[in-house]
Amino acid sequence: MRTALYPGTFDPITMGHVDIIRRGAALVDRLVIGVAINRDKGPMFTLEERVAMVESECAALAKEAGCEIIVHPFENLLIDCANDVGAKIIIRGLRAVADFEYEYQMVGMNRAMDDSIDTVFLMAEAKHQAVASKLVKEIARLGGDISKFVTPEVQTALLAKFA
């Protein structure tokens, strides 16, 4: 069974994340969505809210891809999380060249800690390459239309945060 880990803070989950999850699920038998507990980033949504949003978005994707998708909160090192869930593949989404430099460094560090785990990069679809959770939150905060960037359920949750 090929197991992959797709980590992120998912604050909130965007259409770009959904795109990577859909495509990643087609490559493996089991995809674990690692929802990071990253206190340094100061997430808008609680861990429970982020996990619930990701679970909701992934329910249909799992059926569509014929892949088991599990949502797993984590606060330890990414490489340790991968080992905890039995993943031999880490999936990372790339939007732009700027993402690559950071991801390249992370891959090197992860390989130094455990060279049995590979990282696979998936480029976001062109229509999602500019989508970032931080920008979506800013647009929502300022009253802009975020319907192109998140699902209706996530849009409702975001707008409720700013109400």
Short description, anyone?
With 163 residues, the protein is of the alpha/beta class. The chain contains six helices and five strands, in the order βαβαβαβαβαα.
The overall pLDDT average reads 93
CATH topology group: Rossmann fold
Strand content: 15-25%
- Net shape: globular
Overall helicity: 40-55%
- CATH class, please? Alpha Beta
Please compute the radius of gyration using only Cα atoms: 15 Å
Number of strands: 5
The tally of domains stands at 1
Q: Please give the CATH architecture.
A: 3-Layer(aba) Sandwich
Q: Roughly how many Å apart are the termini?
A: 45 Å
Which strand order spans the largest sheet, edge to edge or round the barrel? 3-2-1-4-5
Order of helices and strands: EHEHEHEHEHH
CATH superfamily: HUPs
How would you sum up this structure, described in words?
This protein has helices spanning 15-25, 47-65, 78-85, 97-113, 133-141, 152-162; strands at 3-8, 30-36, 68-74, 89-94, 118-123. The chain is α/β, with parallel strands linked by helices and 163 residues long. It has one domain (3-129): Rossmann fold, CATH 3.40.50. Helix 1 crosses helix 2. It is globular.
Q: What order do the helices and strands come in, and which of them pair?
A:
Blueprint: E1 3-8, H1 15-25, E2 30-36, H2 47-65, E3 68-74, H3 78-85, E4 89-94, H4 97-113, E5 118-123, H5 133-141, H6 152-162
Parallel strand pairs: 1-2, 1-4, 2-3, 4-5
